[in-house]
Structure formats: C-alpha cells, structure tokens
C-alpha cells in the first residue's frame, strides 16, 4: 500500500466541485493507494510524473517507488491542468 499525500491546492480545487464530481475524483485518488496495480486511466508524462484522467478532470501526481509514496500535486479541468 502506498501513502497518498495531497497538496492543499488540490483540496481547494475539490471544494469548488459539485458533490457528485468531488466524490468521483476522491474515489479515483483513493485508488492510487494501490498504484501501479490500479485499474484506471493513468499515463506516464514524466520520469516520476503520471496523469490520472477522470472525465474532464485531470489529476497530476508523482510516484516514488523507493518510499511507496504518491504525491498528488495538481488537479484541474483538462484545458487548464497542462498550462
């Protein structure tokens, strides 16, 4: 099991969402405890950086396999997250 750390800007973004979308994103982030054995739309975008896609929202996170930590550093809508 991985330790999942979430940046406060991600929590701030989640608080702006409707309860339905928020619960879907939170459930997807909880799945990262079992990363890399996770059944989700995850793609590698950097040496340790990955992208999780859930509808029109993207979650960017780093994974350190030495310490078994997932750091969720950014979450936003598709058009804004890559800028």
Report on this structure.
The chain is of the alpha+beta class. It has one domain (3-81): YaeB-like fold (2-Layer Sandwich). It has three helices and five strands, in the order E-H-H-E-E-E-E-H. It has helices at 8-15, 19-31, 78-81, and strands spanning 3-6, 41-44, 49-54, 57-64, 69-77. The protein has a five-stranded mixed beta sheet with strand order 1-5-4-3-2. Strand 4 (57-64) and strand 5 (69-77) form a beta hairpin. The longest helix is centred in the first third of the chain and has 13 residues, at 19-31. The radius of gyration is 12 Å and the shape is globular. The N and C termini lie far apart (31 Å).
Structural classification: alpha+beta
State the helical fraction: 25-40%
Poorly predicted residue ranges: none
Biggest sheet overview? 5 strands, mixed
Determine the strand fraction and express it as a percent band.
Answer: 35-45%
Total helix count? 3
- Largest sheet, spatial ordering of strands: 1-5-4-3-2
Reading the helices and strands in chain order gives EHHEEEEH
Q: What Rg, in angstroms, do the CA atoms define?
A: 12 Å
User: What's the structural domain tally?
Assistant: 1
Tell me the name of the CATH homologous superfamily: RelE-like
| CATH topology grouping | YaeB-like fold
CATH class category name: Alpha Beta
């Amino acid at each position: 099991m991985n330790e999942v750390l979430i940046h406060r800007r991600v929590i701030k973004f989640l608080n702006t969402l409707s309860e339905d979308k928020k619960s879907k994103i939170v459930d997807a982030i909880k799945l990262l405890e079992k990363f890399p054995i996770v059944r989700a739309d995850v793609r590698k975008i950097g040496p340790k950086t990955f992208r999780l896609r859930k509808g029109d929202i993207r979650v960017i996170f780093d994974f350190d396999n030495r310490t078994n930590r997932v750091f969720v550093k950014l979450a936003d809508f598709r058009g804004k997250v890559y800028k």
